[in-house]
Design brief:
By secondary structure, the protein is of the alpha/beta class. It contains 8 helices and 10 strands. The chain is elongated, with a radius of gyration of 22 Å.
Length: 252
């Protein structure tokens, strides 16, 4: 990236993946790197900094998305997606450098772990992917209506979409809601399509009577098979971190 010019400018975007990919498109077109990139809603105005808001352009985003897979590799696209979901400060500027170098180096970029921003991207991808994988086994659905199921989560990273895709494939004939209480967003699925919405004013019904019975049976089973002498809280927290316990039906 030695032939790229560095700009004393802060780029702002709307926080979406399409918004970030639009920033990548504009930077690659001008061969210019900003000082940093921030989500507009999370940026504190500083009169000493020169800012520019990049409007999201779906066509530009689509070209970058397809270009990553064709010109670099599918693995790079996969890494970019999960790294973007990670709750990490300054992730955007590291991802931008990773992708811009990737368009020059191709698939080799993923082996350049001695480069700081490549290493950071791999670490961010590992964290969000790992949490998503963990929640695939820990998420608990509860029946709250006629063929409607609800599950709450408190993830560190914004992994509600890939988590939702997993359960759409597993439960294609079920209507369900996955509620990220940290970010106040919900993934709604109606057996045909899904959408992610703000959950600030969303009212979740109480669980059904039948669900209450099943929960009592599950707790009874859980407590019955438990062997008090073999209880190992430390090992338990290693595989099922305590921060997730609030969303479980059983009491670890």
């Amino acid at each position: 990236m030695s032939n790229w010019k560095l700009m004393n400018k802060i780029y702002l975007y709307d926080g979406s993946l399409d918004g970030f990919l639009t920033v990548v498109f504009d930077c690659f077109l001008t061969k210019a790197l900003p000082q940093n990139i921030y989500e507009k809603n999370n940026y504190s105005l500083n009169f000493l900094e020169d800012t520019l808001f990049i409007e999201t352009n779906s066509e530009k985003a689509k070209r970058v998305f397809m270009g990553i897979e064709k010109q670099i590799s599918y693995t790079t696209l996969y890494n970019t997606y999960y790294a973007f979901l990670c709750n990490e400060k300054n992730k955007e500027i590291d991802l931008l450098k990773y992708l811009c170098d990737g368009f020059s180096l191709g698939p080799k970029i993923n082996n350049r772990l001695t480069i700081s921003y490549v290493f950071k991207v791999m670490n961010m991808k590992k964290r969000s992917f790992g949490e998503c994988h963990r929640l695939k086994g820990l998420l608990r659905f509860q029946e709250v209506g006629n063929n409607l199921y609800y599950a709450s989560i408190h993830p560190d990273n914004n992994i509600i979409e890939p988590l939702g895709h997993h359960f759409i494939n597993r439960l294609p004939s079920q209507n369900f809601i996955i509620h990220d209480k940290i970010r106040n967003i919900c993934l709604l699925y109606n057996r045909k399509e899904y959408k992610i919405v703000d959950s600030t004013n969303l009212k979740i019904p109480n669980i059904s009577e039948e669900e209450e019975k099943y929960q009592e049976l599950w707790k009874l089973f859980y407590n019955t098979i438990a062997i008090a002498e073999r209880k190992n809280p430390r090992c338990q927290m290693q595989y099922m971190p305590k921060k997730y316990w609030k969303d479980l039906i059983e009491e670890p």
